[in-house]
Each structure stands twice: as structure tokens, then as C-alpha cells.
């Protein structure tokens, strides 16, 4: 009998990673085994996550803002950050979301667009997990069209006064600082949009948590309410004018999803293979039936191709050559394939596939959110379509 291979062996994936990237992958994977996997099903079922506790541990691991330079950030490559996201999402999308929002949205926005004072105040503490951040762009009525946001910032003397509501904000109710995007009347800002660094203990700021979720249950999701939140002029991100600021940050988060979604897909496939090898049907292992092997082979192809695409885009990003259209291509393909793989794996597990004893239905539910956040599949299809045809079709 031949020895079974993994998808990594089938596609010879490990030689495509640098030694440092392999070391980071193995470290984060072991952290998942030791610290996260024993608890994740309970956290998901109970609809909670010990965010502050985990943030401190992830900070000591170097996983928060790991691809940023200076201010206590590790300054790793984009590919290293990607493989870390892959291992975190192999455990649960909610864990990777915590890291993505902290590092790729909140920290990245301050690092890229903030003043030196803002960077010094927040980034070192955010890198260690001492301070938590969130990112306020999406609104109840404006997700795919952020230019229509109603949250506004009006000048009052030397201050800014913010009013509005943001929705579906990861880490919102546990954050120490929120990067909030709002409409202003500044002539130098396209559409008037500017970003503000908002300490969450500012009077008028509240973040009620959203409950009764059936996806990303092991994640804190909140609404942000800004009711006459008064900020000094120094709270504005000085170098971010218009939608370029938030959309650049979203590109960073989407990049992590390209890798992360394949972690979830791989975990589902490995679970399904192990189950099929041990489950007997008609006095024979389920893995020994042609239809089961056909499913496994087809899913392995997509997991392998998804890894190759992620690694390729990682190298492009490391060279500073990646484009938004390429990020959209990776996000659209890998998340779409990951959710299809999760659903197919559920069929191999049968009734056992709907329980939290196995990770498959949890991954499938989580991927329903990953499919639509950081840009819906339709938005990414139109982005790719515009790149290929030269015609915009968003409206």
C-alpha cells in the first residue's frame, strides 16, 4: 500500500518558502495547536473570544503589525505575514480577523497615514497587544459604496466634531483606539473623506457589541456610534485624503485573506481525509471509494492552486509590484474555492460534519462572512472586469 501524501507534498509547496517563512509558519501553527485549537469550538459555540488575552500572546509572538517597520513592529515580509494568516485561519477565521484588523487596518492606517505623534503614541502598544484597534469604514447603508458614507466631521474652532454610525466593526467594543473615516468639507480631500484617530474613551463614543451571529462567532463584532465626539485637530490622519486611505488599508487586509482562506480550506480537507480513512462504510474505509477519492482529488487541486496563487502574490507584494486587481483576483478565487471546499468536505463527514466536534461546519459558516467582507465577490469581479475590459461597470 502506498504512503499517503499531503497537499503540500503533492504540490511541493514547502520549497517555495524561505527558511524564515517556514519558521514563522511552524511557530504560528504550533501556537494554534497548543493555545487555540483546544478552545476554539467552545469559543465559537459560546459566541465569545478572550481578545485581550490573545492579543497579548499574539503580540509576544510578533504577529501584530508584523509586516510593518519600526515602532516596535517586526518588519517581516508580506509573504511571512501571509503564511501567519494562513495558520491562524486554519484554526478559525475569527482569530485571523483579530490580527488583520489590528495590523492591516488600524495599525497600517496609522503607520502609513499618521503623524509622528500618532505613530509614537499608538503603534508600540498595539504591536505588543497592550492597545487594541479597530477600523470604522462600513456603515449600515454603505458597504460596497463607502463614498456615500454619512458619518461626518465638522470643524468647531480648532476641534473636529464627529457624528455617525459604523457597522460590522471587528474588535470594536474592546478597542482602545478606532480609526474612523468621515465626510468633511475640506477642499483638499476627494469626496471630503478624511481619517481620524479616535481614543475610544472619548465622550460620545460607544461601541455596542453585535450578538446572535451565526458566522465569526469567535470574534468581537460591534457597531460604532459617534455622538458629538469632539477631537483635537491633531486627531486627523494628516496624509490620508479621500478614499485612497481606507481602500489602501483594505488592500492590506485582503492580502491576508488570500492566504488565510486557504488555511481554512486546508484544515477542512485534512479533516475530511482523516475522517474518510477511519470511517468504515460497508466494511471498507470511506477513503477507499472512488467517489470519495474524486472529491478529495478535486479539492486538493484547488487547495494546491490556491496556495500557489497566494505565494505568487506574496512575492509580488514583497517586490512592491502587486496591483489592486491582483489582490482582487486572489481574494475572489481563494475565498470562493475555500467555501466550496468546506461544503464538499461536510458531505464526506455526513451528519458528523454539522457538529463542532469537527471544524468543517465552523469554517463553512465563517467563510460566509469572509466571502463578503473586505469587498464582496461581486465587487472583486467588477474590479477584474474593469482591468480586463477598460470599462467600469460599478454603476
From TrEMBL:
Domain Acyl-CoA oxidase/dehydrogenase middle: residue ranges: 134-229
Organism for this UniProt entry: Gordonia sesuvii
Superkingdom assignment: Bacteria
UniProt keyword list: FAD, Flavoprotein, Oxidoreductase, Transit peptide
Family (UniProt): Belongs to the acyl-CoA dehydrogenase family.
A Pfam family matched in the record: Acyl-CoA_dh_N
Name recorded for this polypeptide: Acyl-CoA dehydrogenase family protein
Chain ranges of the Acyl-CoA dehydrogenase/oxidase C-terminal domain: 242-388
Names of required cofactors: FAD
Entry-linked SUPFAM superfamilies: Acyl-CoA dehydrogenase C-terminal domain-like (SSF47203), Acyl-CoA dehydrogenase NM domain-like (SSF56645)
